[in-house]
Structure to design on (710 residues):
C-alpha cells in the first residue's frame, strides 16, 4: 500500500515539511543572534583580551561600572540623548507632518524633509561635521553673518555642546523617518469624527488634541518606540563625528562598549556593557509598548 | 590483494612527490588598504625570487583587523605573515605565544639594521618581528612661505620660536595641530619631552618616572606657553583635509608629523612646495633625538610553513627587497645599505640630515607605553590642550592612570 494514501502519514508529512521550512530561518537566528548573545553573556563574567582563554571573574565587570567615571559620564550622555531625541524629534516630526498634511507643500520641499531617512548614520555624521567645523564651518559662518560671532566655537570639541550638536544631527535624520510614518497615519485617519467635531464648533486645536492625537496613538507608539530604541543604542553618528571625545566626554553606552571591546580589548567589560545596554533597551521598549497596547485596549 | 597494495604505495609515493614539489603558500594579512597595490607588486617579486605563492589579504579597517587577527592568531589558520605595531602594541600577542621568534632572520643581515630597531621588536632579549616601515617624526614646512619671509630652517629651539613668533605677527599660523582624532595629542607632548630630556621620556613611557615630575611639568609649561601664544591652528580642524589645505595655501607654515604624512600633503595640499627639517632640541644638552615610528612584520607561530615565512622575512630585509619597497612607498629604509638615491629629493635630504647628527631614535609614544595608558592618556592630553588651565588636574590624572596600570600590570 503506498504511503500517501494513509491520511495520518499525510498529516505527519505536512507537519514535518512545515518544520523543515522553518529550519533555515531558525538556524539563521540561532547562529547569528542567539548563540552570540549567550557567548556575550558568558564573556561578561570573564576577563578576556580576545587572545588568551577567558578567566572567570564573576560579577566584577558589573561592579566595575560603579567605579568607572567614564561609564558614569557615558550613562549620563545616553540619558541626555534619549530625553532630547525623544522629545525634540517626535514633537518636531508630528508638528511638521500636521503642517504638511494641511498645506500642499511642493514635492521639492517634502523631499527635503524625507531625504535624511535614506542616509546612513555615517553619512549624516560626515555631512554634519562640515556644519560644525570650526572657522569656516556652516554654523559658525551663519553666526558670524548675523553678528553673533561671540557664539562661534569649535562645536565638536566643546563640552557639552558636542553632545547637543550630535543630537541635532541625529534629530535631522530621525525626523525624516518619523515624519513619513506620522504622515501615513494622518492620511489614514477616519474623517467622520473630525467633521462631526468641526460641525459642533470645535476649534482646530481642540480637534487636534482631542481627536487626531488619540486616533494617532498606534502610530505614535511606533514612532516613540523606535526613537527610544535608536537613541539608546546610538553609535555611528558619534563614532564619525567625535569618536566619543574629547576626553571621552561624548561617549554613550554603545560607544563605550565598542571602545572597551575593540579599542582597548577589554572584551569582558565590553560584553558586560553590551548586556546591560540590551537589558535597558529591552525593558524600556517592552514596558513602553506594553503600556501603550494596554492603553489601546482600554479605549 | 598484493596488486592493490602496490597501487596504494605507488599512489602515496606519487602524492608525496607532488606535495614536495609544490611551492609553499603563504598568507600575508594587512590593514593598510591604500598600500594594497604596493604589497601586491612586491609580493609578486618575492614569489618569483623564493618560488613560493603569497596571498595578500587586505582588511578594510584597523579595529576589524585587530579583532579578527586576535582570534585567528590562536589557530593554525592564522596568516603566516602580517603587519602589526611595535613595542607595547605587540607585547600581548608575543606573551600569548602566537608570534614566531625571528632572531636568525636578523642575524642573517649582520649590521645592516640599527640595534634600536631590533629593540623595538624585542622582548626578554628575543626579537619577534622585522621592520615593515620606519617613519621619522619631523617638521614639514611650506618652503614658499619660508622663502617669501626670508626664513631658513631653524638650527636651535630659540630660532624655531622666533620663526613662530614672526609668522604669527604676519597672520600665518606657525603650526598645524588637530584633535579630531584624539591620538594626535601625543605629537607635541612626545616632541617636547625628547627635546628636553630623552632619558626622562624613556623612563616615563616605561613607568619609571611620573607625569607629575618636574621634567613633565616643564614640558606642560612650554606647551602651554605655545598654545596660549596662539601658535597652533584650531584643534577642531581635521588634519586631512582642513589643515593640509591651509598648509597648501600658506596659511599654516609647519606641520610636525610622521614621514608618511608626505603622501597626504601631496594628495590634499594642492600644488604645494614643502620640505622637512628635524626639530631642534629645546635644550642643546638634551642632544639630537627624533621620534621614530616602526611598524613590524610578524610571523605566526601557529601557522604552517614557518620556515617559508622566515625565508620570506629574510628576503624582505635584504637590500634588493628594501630598495624596491622604498621606491614604491617613498620611505627611508631601515637597512643602512639601501642607497637613498631612489627616494624623492625631500626624503633624500631627510636621510642626509639624519646621518649628519648623532641622532637618538626614540619610539613613538603610541607604541612606547602600554595601550591601556596611551589610549586614555590622549584624552587627558586633549583636555589640557583645549583648556591649559587644567594642567594640574591633567598631570595628576595621568599620574594616577599610569601608576595604577603599572601596579596592576598582568601579562
Amino acid at each position: 500500500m503506498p504511503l500517501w494514501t494513509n491520511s495520518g502519514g499525510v498529516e505527519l508529512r505536512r507537519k514535518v515539511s512545515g518544520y523543515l521550512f522553518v529550519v533555515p530561518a531558525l538556524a539563521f537566528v540561532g547562529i547569528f543572534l542567539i548563540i552570540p548573545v549567550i557567548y556575550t553573556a558568558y564573556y561578561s563574567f570573564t576577563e578576556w583580551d580576545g587572545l588568551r582563554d577567558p578567566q572567570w571573574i564573576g560579577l566584577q565587570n558589573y561592579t566595575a561600572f560603579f567605579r568607572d567615571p567614564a561609564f558614569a559620564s557615558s550613562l549620563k550622555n545616553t540619558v541626555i540623548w534619549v530625553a532630547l531625541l525623544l522629545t525634540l524629534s517626535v514633537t518636531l516630526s508630528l508638528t511638521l507632518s500636521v503642517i504638511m498634511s494641511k498645506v500642499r507643500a511642493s514635492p521639492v520641499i517634502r523631499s527635503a524633509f524625507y531625504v535624511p531617512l535614506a542616509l546612513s548614520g555615517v553619512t549624516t555624521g560626515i555631512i554634519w561635521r562640515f556644519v560644525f567645523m570650526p572657522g569656516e564651518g556652516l554654523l559658525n559662518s551663519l553666526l558670524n553673518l548675523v553678528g553673533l560671532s561671540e557664539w562661534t566655537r569649535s562645536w565638536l570639541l566643546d563640552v557639552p555642546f558636542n553632545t547637543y550638536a550630535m543630537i541635532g544631527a541625529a534629530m535631522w535624520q530621525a525626523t525624516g523617518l518619523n515624519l513619513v510614518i506620522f504622515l501615513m497615519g494622518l492620511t489614514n485617519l477616519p474623517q467622520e469624527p473630525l467633521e462631526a467635531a468641526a460641525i459642533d464648533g470645535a476649534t482646530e486645536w481642540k480637534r487636534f488634541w482631542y481627536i487626531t492625537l488619540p486616533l494617532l496613538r498606534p502610530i505614535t507608539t511606533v514612532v516613540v518606540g523606535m526613537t527610544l530604541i535608536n537613541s539608546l543604542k546610538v553609535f555611528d553618528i558619534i563614532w564619525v563625528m567625535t569618536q566619543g571625545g574629547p576626553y571621552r566626554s561624548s561617549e554613550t553606552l554603545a560607544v563605550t562598549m565598542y571602545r572597551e571591546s575593540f579599542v582597548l580589548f577589554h572584551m569582558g567589560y565590553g560584553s558586560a556593557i553590551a548586556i546591560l545596554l540590551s537589558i535597558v533597551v529591552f525593558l524600556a521598549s517592552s514596558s513602553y509598548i506594553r503600556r501603550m497596547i494596554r492603553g489601546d485596549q482600554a479605549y | 590483494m598484493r596488486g592493490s597494495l602496490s597501487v596504494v604505495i605507488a599512489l602515496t609515493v606519487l602524492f608525496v612527490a607532488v606535495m614536495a614539489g609544490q611551492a609553499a603558500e603563504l598568507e600575508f594579512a594587512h590593514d593598510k588598504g591604500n598600500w594594497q597595490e604596493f604589497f601586491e607588486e612586491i609580493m609578486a617579486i618575492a614569489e618569483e625570487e623564493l618560488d613560493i605563492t603569497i596571498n595578500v589579504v587586505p582588511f578594510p579597517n584597523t579595529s576589524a583587523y585587530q579583532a579578527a587577527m586576535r582570534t585567528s592568531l590562536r589557530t593554525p589558520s592564522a596568516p603566516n605573515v602580517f603587519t602589526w605595531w611595535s613595542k607595547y602594541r605587540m607585547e600581548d600577542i608575543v606573551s600569548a605565544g602566537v608570534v614566531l621568534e625571528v632572531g636568525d632572520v636578523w642575524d642573517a643581515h649582520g649590521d645592516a639594521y640599527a640595534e634600536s630597531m631590533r629593540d623595538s621588536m624585542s622582548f626578554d632579549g628575543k626579537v619577534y618581528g622585522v621592520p615593515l616601515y620606519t617613519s621619522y617624526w619631523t617638521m614639514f614646512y611650506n618652503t614658499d612661505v619660508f622663502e617669501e619671509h626670508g626664513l631658513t630652517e631653524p638650527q636651535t629651539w630659540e630660532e624655531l620660536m622666533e620663526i613662530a613668533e614672526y609668522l604669527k605677527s604676519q597672520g600665518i599660523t606657525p603650526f598645524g595641530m588637530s584633535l579630531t582624532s584624539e591620538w594626535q595629542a601625543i605629537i607635541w607632548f612626545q616632541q617636547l619631552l625628547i627635546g628636553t630630556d630623552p632619558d626622562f621620556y624613556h623612563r616615563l613611557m616605561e613607568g619609571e618616572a611620573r607625569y607629575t615630575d618636574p621634567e613633565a611639568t616643564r614640558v606642560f609649561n612650554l606647551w602651554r606657553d605655545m598654545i596660549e601664544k596662539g601658535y597652533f591652528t584650531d584643534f577642531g580642524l581635521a588634519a586631512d583635509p582642513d589643515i593640509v589645505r591651509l598648509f597648501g595655501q600658506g596659511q599654516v607654515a609647519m606641520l610636525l608629523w610622521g614621514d608618511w604624512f608626505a603622501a597626504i600633503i601631496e594628495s590634499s595640499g594642492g600644488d604645494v612646495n614643502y620640505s622637512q627639517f628635524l626639530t631642534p632640541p629645546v635644550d642643546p644638552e638634551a642632544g639630537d633625538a627624533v621620534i621614530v615610528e616602526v611598524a613590524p612584520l610578524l610571523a605566526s607561530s601557529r601557522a604552517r610553513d614557518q620556515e617559508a615565512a622566515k625565508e620570506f622575512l629574510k628576503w624582505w630585509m635584504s637590500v634588493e627587497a628594501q630598495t624596491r619597497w622604498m621606491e614604491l612607498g617613498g620611505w627611508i629604509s631601515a637597512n643602512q645599505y639601501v642607497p637613498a638615491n631612489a627616494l624623492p629629493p625631500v626624503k633624500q635630504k631627510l636621510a642626509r640630515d639624519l646621518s649628519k647628527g648623532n641622532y637618538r631614535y626614540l619610539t613613538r609614544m603610541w607604541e612606547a607605553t602600554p595601550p591601556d595608558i596611551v589610549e586614555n592618556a590622549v584624552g587627558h592630553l586633549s583636555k589640557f590642550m583645549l583648556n591649559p588651565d587644567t594642567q594640574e588636574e591633567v598631570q595628576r590624572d595621568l599620574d594616577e592612570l599610569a601608576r595604577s596600570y603599572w601596579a596592576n600590570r598582568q601579562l
User: Anything to note?
Assistant: Chain B is about 50% helix and 15% strand. The first helix of chain B runs from residue 2 to 21.
